[in-house]
Amino acid sequence: MASNRMVDKLGLDNTPHLKPYAFHWLDDGNKVKFTKQVKLALTMGTYTDQVLCDVVPMDACHVLLGHPWQFDRNVIHRVQSNEYELIDKGKKLVPKPMEPSVVRSMGTTQGKAASMTMFASEQEVGEVIKEGGCVYLMVVKEVPSVGVKNAQLTALLREFEDVFPEDLPAGLPPIRGIEHQIDLIPGASLPNKAAYRCNPTETN
Prior knowledge:
Layout: E1 2-3, H1 4-10, E2 14-24, E3 31-44, E4 47-56, H2 67-72, E5 76-78, E6 83-88, E7 91-93, H3 100-105, H4 122-130, H5 151-159, H6 200-203
Parallel strand pairs: 1-4
Antiparallel strand pairs: 2-3, 3-4, 5-6, 6-7
């Protein structure tokens, strides 16, 4: 599968799909129709190939090599080393995965709505399988933040850096000349009154 955003930005020529079909997202229940295909040039180290991909709107990645490509190349996934072994022109190839630092440097700043999720319940997965749909699973690894990148926020913190001490004081603040406190009458009972009545709208 290929992202429609990538296809549009690169100006790739797409062709009508020979056998259009619907794709079912598990997170929101919406269906996406596959109506276009695009041929992509693929390079992994010394391995070069051309792959015919279905064009679909997706934010997880730009290109997703699925089961058909793995079947045609007799791909084997080595889980412990996170390597893929494939057969190309009768030769066995093992492209090396990129280092985590390289992957982080290639990350984009594209935002995503907080409500969107790719998680699905066991019942949802079971219903899709019973209907004969395709189920794709993805493993996501969280990348820790590398610091503040907002130029305006950085400039603001630099302007008021004297307000933020490097070392926090030990204990409570010292006694001041004026203390904001409530003087209680010794022996007096604490007030115990009902709360002000509000309508449900005001309460919420």
